[in-house]
Amino acid sequence: xxxxxxxxxxxxxxxxxxxxxxxxxxxxxxxxxxxxxxxxxxxxxxxxxxxxxxxxxxxxxxxxxxxxxxxxxxxxxxxxxxxxxxxxxxxxxxxxxxxxxxxxxxxxxxxxxxxxxxxxxxxxxxxxxxxxxxxxxxxxxxxxxxxxxxxxxxxxxxxxxxxxxxxxxxxxxxxxxxxxxxxxxxxxxxxxxxxxxxxxxxxxxxxxxxxxxxxxxxxxxxxxxxxxxxxxxxxxxxxxxxxxxxxxxxxxxxxxxxxxxxxxxxxxxxxxxxxxxxxxxxxxxxxxxxxxxxxxxxxxxxxxxxxxxxxxxxxxxxxxxxxxxxxxxxxxxxxxxxxxxxxxxxxxxxxxxxxxxxxxxxxxxxxxxxxxxxxxxxxxxxxxxxxxxxxxxxxxxxxxxxxxxxxxxxxxxxxxxxxxxxxxxxxxxxxxxxxxxxxxxxxxxxxxxxxxxxxxxxxxxxxxxxxxxxxxxxxxxxxxxxxxxxxxxxxxxxxxxxxxxxxxxxxxxxxxxxxxxxxxxxxxxxxxxxxxxxxxxxxxxxxxxxxxxxxxxxxxxxxxxxxxxxxxxxxxxxxxxxxxxxxxxxxxxxxxxxxxxxxxxxxxxxxxxxxxxxxxxxxxxxxxxxxxxxxxxxxxxxxxxxxxxxxxxxxxxxxxxxxxxxxxxxxxxxxxxxxxxxxxxxxxxxxxxxxxxxxxxxxxxxxxxxxxxxxxxxxxxxxxxxxxxxxxxxxxxxxxxxxxxxxxxxxxxxxxxxxxxxxxxxxxxxxxxxxxxxxxxxxxxxxxxxxxxxxxxxxxxxxxxxxxxxxxxxxxxxxxxxxxxxxxxxxxxxxxxxxxxxxxxxxxxxxxxxxxxxxxxxxxx
Length: 861
Fold this sequence. Notes:
The chain has 39 helices and 20 strands. The protein is α/β, with parallel strands linked by helices and 861 residues long.
């Protein structure tokens, strides 16, 4: 069976381009000479006066794209059956229809690029109703990406405004569509010997770097295909503090595109952020003979992967180009034609990927910089990517050599979901296992905080799969596994010796890190001065038998190799993950027996995790003492903390457990809505893990539980509410509909509103809210709050669906004649001062209420 991810790319440009052109109106005279941006929704051919394509035609276009993709697979090789192909067609047609709804302007769309533009189109199209399986979803995504590419290319050809505003993106898209032409232009005439070796070398690169290995895990998949597993990360310029101010934040770009805008880049990233994975992906992509990947700057180039820990050897000079392959142990190095690397670099076809400046000793980094400078000057015009952990080299370390600096950003929520799904697909695990982990990550705050980069996500995936769908039942085991991986096993399994001296033993690293963590917690600080960190390390050294090594050397080793500390600004130190700071601080709090100090801070949100993790570390008698203190009558927050702590303590005496449970029963489930509000305010996310339901509780209790979660109003609360979206209780449904304004509007619409009956009142206060409801197919009862434009309402409210409308405006309503556009409208409520004569403008048979007193009803017909 053909790999479904390749099918979209197999649809020829000559087939896609005509289909895309049908989605837009034809240019009139002068249409290519616009001097201002144009909204894409104004260009489509299936809306407005110039309509030439019907909704049915949209389905035909989507059907043709699906048909051509499946035809390219060959008879008997189709990855989806006829029913799923029809579902892909329906989802794709609905997504293409979004072109008529989004307000993105032409130059903005081109600036997004095909990947992000495809996400913009699909954002308002929930896939759940289409019932797509894994292969169906992949086919839909690939076809949407292909269509998006050609849509953007069409826009660049149509509008000279776009070409002027987005020259770089326009050129990239044009090259992408004509990738073969780019290749022919870039490839010089070669001898048969050079060409033959280059092909063998490309095969070696694909084989050597075409898999990913996750280090430091006890079980689970250790190697998986790079093309399946790779996740597009994002990079931004570093924020630098100078003279008391912080530079403005720069927009992010896809990490694989950093070399598209600049030939030479120094990329910083924390441990496990994906630097080496990006290097592998760029190498494999450059070596491939596939040219539809969207990275035209890599087409026809030759990659050289240069891990610094391998090419820097004691007493030896750094390698010249002719020795690159031998220095990294390339098995085909002996077949290399004399002068081949130099010929590649003089032709400006090289992609030099220098990975891990931080992994060589500090005294060798100056030599590495000189080596880089000499190579860049001797062979200009090649692409260079140099990677490092953030604190290994100073800011602008390679600025004089012409290198642009970028920083890898933490993974976004969508990136985490993509990573988890691909990991499980590559591991051959059932789809439900990955979805189970995603649900756990979304609803569990500590997992959510951990899942910020590929290394930590991979750890969670492997632990979850190894335990057949269940992560360790206690946070202590989870963090211990993570610490072991970061502090000990990862470097050891990579065969990486500490570049600046002896590797610190695991126990020593933990002792030092927890002292730093507890100092930050006790002082209510997020970061400390480097001098304070050195003082803490220095005081600990004699007891650790490390006094001879010096606090600066020990601190430096801890900073570079632990993966848990960083220096976000000059002379400042903090923990990369707050969750590890809390874990390590709680560990030392128990060792120091600071239980009363913990109780005194129980009312502070930032001490919540510290207290719970202290219960996980405490011995039974210590845990019981802490729980007795927390469960003293009168404080709902302490009662909730004690109840949550039952899951953390390894052993609790029955009488202590009964006392804690009695304290919880006074607050959860809440007996009325006032209590629900109080519990939400006191407990925050903490209360979510203690609330019952949806099974096993009556409708009234369910309504109060939902109200409690709505009052919490956090990310975890939104995930909790998803459990109730199919609940039949009217109170539950009404509360869920009313809670829309309290959360991220688009996401709440997709994850909650899309599953509710349409008759409950929902509030809108912006054009984006109206678009979100339109993407759901419309709504029956809409409450318009604040100022509005009649044109927006008539354009975006689905006429066939609207039955009830409430106008709660910031100014008097001037007219209601526009309501005649809604044939199913039954009631209108106006909650503002206005002239009651506007009632005469309302269509016959519609019941009208002005403010809260006067009520009018027009007779039928």
